[in-house]
Design goal:
single chain, 448 residues, seven-stranded parallel β-sheet, binds zinc ion
Amino acid sequence: MKRISRLGRAFLVAFLLSFSLAATAQARPLPGPDVQQIYQRLLPQIEQIPAFDHHAHPGFSDDPDVDAMAAPPGASAPLRTRDDNPELLAAARALFGYPYSDFSPEHAKWLVAKKAGLKRQYTGSAYFNMILDKLNTESSVANRAMMADYLDPRRFPWVFFVDSFMWPFNNQRETARNPDERVFIPLQEKMLHRWMQQENVSILPPKFSGYLEFITRVLVDNQKKGGIAMKFEVAYFRPTTFSDPTREQAEEIYRHYASGGVPSEKDYRIFQDYIFRFLVQEGGRLHLPVHIHSAVGIGDYFNLSQSNIMNLETVLRDPRYGGTTFVMIHGGYPLERPAIWLAAMKNVYLDSSFGELAQYPAAFKDALKMWLETFPEKITFGTDCFPYNEVLGAEESYWLGAQSSRMALAAALAEMISENEITEDRAMELARGYLHDNAVKLYEGRVH
Ligand SMILES: [Zn+2]
């Protein structure tokens, strides 16, 4: 080997150093040829980060408490979320060693039997803990109507639903609005009834102050039961533009309709606007972060323009709610580009769940990259896993969501490194933030 003189070597080092400094000094618009290699290097490191899944619906397919909602029969599903997505075969193979290349009824029986065997082996809460271990997920939010005794509360912190407090009156007109509401609104009535049962309240309190006290009792009791946040999915039921009525206005409507009668749409909305703001304020006072569904939703009648995440901007940027932590579930998808600017507010976070399932990793990577380049410390990972049916459960959808997110994250960061935006160390810091640290921090030590 040809020897380089000591001086020559020093010169070379200085030259390379100045070159690399120059290279990091300015970002470039295209990734270099090294982007593939960087991706391959990052992915296994990213797979080793224990994750905190900030939004998920774990549970078995025959468990009606997996969600406070249900999909209307025959609702359209975007391509990748259909249960014939071949990627679910990869999920079943990775998690359970599924040996077939289709889900024909005959083959599907194998998977059902395999899971039944594992449930006998991993009894109680051990089964879903084992699934989390396989995904390298340390903890996963369980956004469920009620908690299940087969989920370990230490690894599945509960996020409960609060929309039902906005629907206490005769909902005849609301239910008749369209076929989706015919499914949704009765479920809200049922949920309100369950909260009433929990608090031993048999009829709506006659006074408005009593109704507000009842709401607060539910929040406090749910928090005692392990609830870490409250969740709104109000976009499914009405527009997300909220007026700012006085307590007296809401009180008068309550006095009128608590014991019966169908309120006008205008009156009902005014009442709901007040209750929504009351809950948001209580979330601040009780240190109970507020999760809000902020994306498209299931059901063919879901009105995206009326539930556009930016409708909530006036609430999120209202200094009166500065003490409330907001998590915008699904990050406004498909409006994630304007949505990231809401995270300028110190108390507003964006969750990426569903985006990683509705899109393929190539598209999700671009969305995540844009977020990482804007407010990287305000974004959190979630899968929005859900049991599809008896064969394909929350397990497979957990796997697809987690895998897709980790791959898209590695790809986004690889591009950012290759484009001279960040160093590899910084990339791993951002990865840990997105997959775990950012979410865990906002619960002030109540989750891990
Ligand atoms: Zn969800």
